[in-house]
Amino acid sequence: MATLNYKHLRYFWTVARCGSIAKAAEQLHLTPQSISGQLSEFADTLGVELFRKVGRRLEVTETGNRVLRHADEIFSAGDALLELVRDQTAAQVTTFRIGVSDSVSKAVACRLVAPALSLAAPTRLICREGRLAALLADMAVHKLDLIIADRIMPSHLSVRGYNHLLGESELGVFAAPQLRERLHGDFPACLNHAPLLLPGEDFAIRARLMQWLHEQVPYLQVIGEFDDSAMLKAFGQAGAGVFFAPAAIAAAICAQYGVQLIGTIPALREQVYAITTERRISHPATQAIRLAALETLSA
Known about the structure:
The protein is α/β, with parallel strands linked by helices and 299 residues long. The protein has three domains: 6-86, Arc Repressor Mutant, subunit A; 91-167 and 273-296, Periplasmic binding protein-like II (D-Maltodextrin-Binding Protein, domain 2), CATH 3.40.190.10; 170-269, D-Maltodextrin-Binding Protein, domain 2, CATH 3.40.190.10. It contains eleven helices and ten strands. It has helices spanning 6-18, 21-28, 32-46, 62-86, 106-113, 132-140, 177-180, 206-216, 229-237, 250-257, 284-296; strands at residues 51-54, 57-60, 94-101, 123-130, 146-149, 162-175, 195-199, 221-226, 243-246, 260-276. It has a six-stranded mixed beta sheet, sandwiched between helices.
C-alpha cells in the first residue's frame, strides 16, 4: 500500500486554496511545471482525480474536496504544534473554544463571552460563528467546548451534549429616528404598514413572532428577512425598517446603532442557552459566562 507523501499533500492543499498552479508556485517559490508534475504524481499515487479543468482555471473535484478537508485538519494540527513549540508559555494556557449561533444577538454573545477572557488562569479564547447544526457537528468531534444558541439542541441529532438555560429577555422593537417619525399611532398600532425586518427561519423566536404579528398588525409589510442578527441591525440602523432584538440590551443597541426602542413584547421572550459536553457546568470559563448571563439577562 502506498504511503502518504505529505509534501505532495501540501502542494495539492496550496493549489486548492490559491485556485491556480501559478499562484501556488509564487507562494511555494517553485516553478509551475514542478508543482504540476508533483500533483500528477500525487493523483496517480492516490488513484483519484483531484482537479478538473474548467476553462483556464482548476476546479477541485468532489473527491478532491474530501481530501482537502482532511488536509485542512492535518496542517491546522501541524501549525498548532509549531506554535506550541515556539511559545513555551502555551503549555500553561488553557484553550476554550466557543461557537455562537448566527441567530444569537452579537451584543448579547459579546457580553456573555467577555468575562472568559478575564479568568485568573491564562485562557486563550477561540470563537466561531455559524448555523447551529454546523456548530454541533464541530462539538461532536471536540472542536468546540461550548455553544451559545437561542434554542436547545435538536433531539434528532446524535450529538452528546447538555442544554443549560442562561437566561431570557422579552423582545424589543427598534427603529431608526427618521423612520420612527413616519410611524403613526402608539405601539403596536404604529407597526401597521411599517416596513418590517424579520429574523430568518433559523431563529427560534421566528414562529412565535410571526403569530404575534398576524394577531396584532392587520396591515403587515415585511420587506426583509435576515439569517444574521448583526446584518439585520445594520439594515435597521440605515432606516430600512423596524427590527426586533432582546430588550435586555436595548440601551446598548440604541447606543451602537443610533436607533430608538419603540416598544416591547412581554409575551415573546427570547431565550439563550449554553450547550456543552459536560452535564454540570464546571469549567471556569463556562461558569464566568453563566454569571455574566445572570447580570445581562433575566434568568
